[in-house]
Amino acid sequence: MINDENTGVEETEVEETETESETEVEEETQEDAQGVEYWKAEALKNKAILDRNKNKPASSQKSGDFGYDVKAYLKSSGITATEFDFVKAEMKSAGIKDIDALLENKYFQSRLEEHREISRTAEATPKGNRSGGVATDSVEYWLSKPIEEVPASKRREVVNAKLAKERNQSKFYNT
Q1: For residue 83, how many other CB atoms are within 10 A of its CB?
Q2: Cα 49 from Cα 26, distance rounded (Å)
Q3: Helices assigned H by DSSP within 55-134
Q4: What is the C-alpha separation between 15 and 9, in angstroms, rounded?
Q5: Which residue ranges of the chain lie beneath pLDDT 70?
Q6: What is the per-residue pLDDT for 129?
Q7: CA 98, CA 70: separation in Å to the nearest integer?
Q8: Where do the structural domains in the chain lie, given as residue ranges?
């Protein structure tokens, strides 16, 4: 009798364990189904986003423009922002795609120094015309000077201009 009583208890425990495991399996199956549905929905959403972006331009940045990283590298290498266009032109003319190779190129360095010298000269040259008169190599400048002061290369032109001016003037004051 003692054995009969123990046998019944064991059977009940086994039945309860089987029911719990069946319930766990069903829950896992439901979770798996929900997970699959979730990932399918995510995939469809991402596909819709990609389709929407196909018609948009790839980038708002100009294709020939340097990115911020390249600009920062060029500035740290001693190239000013005003020289970026020159660097782009040199890259294109030399056919070099790598910035490092271009900066190490002796030909580029000499061209850069030449470009900088031209820029310095242009900045040092005064802007505007402060003289208020005519350039010294023009005929109008030499018309008012005595013929002895006129350079030999300009004398013929100056004399012809004086004769033309005298012909065009009237002989009388009021006419």
Answers
A1: 17
A2: 35
A3: 68-76, 84-94, 99-104, 106-124
A4: 10
A5: 1-25, 57-64, 128-135, 170-175
A6: 56
A7: 10
A8: 7-54, 68-124, 139-168
Contacts of 86 (CB under 8 A, 6+ apart): 112, 115
Q: Are 64 and 88 in contact (CB under 8 A)?
A: yes
Please name the amino acid found at residue 1.
Answer: M
Contact criterion met (CB below 8 Å) for 108 and 94:
yes
**Helix axis angle, 68-76 to 84-94, nearest 10°:** 100
CA distances from 47 to 51, 52, 123 (A): 6, 9, 56
Q: Which two tokens stand for residue 129?
A: 């015309």
169: helix, strand or coil: coil
Q: Chain-centre distance of CA 113, in angstroms?
A: 22
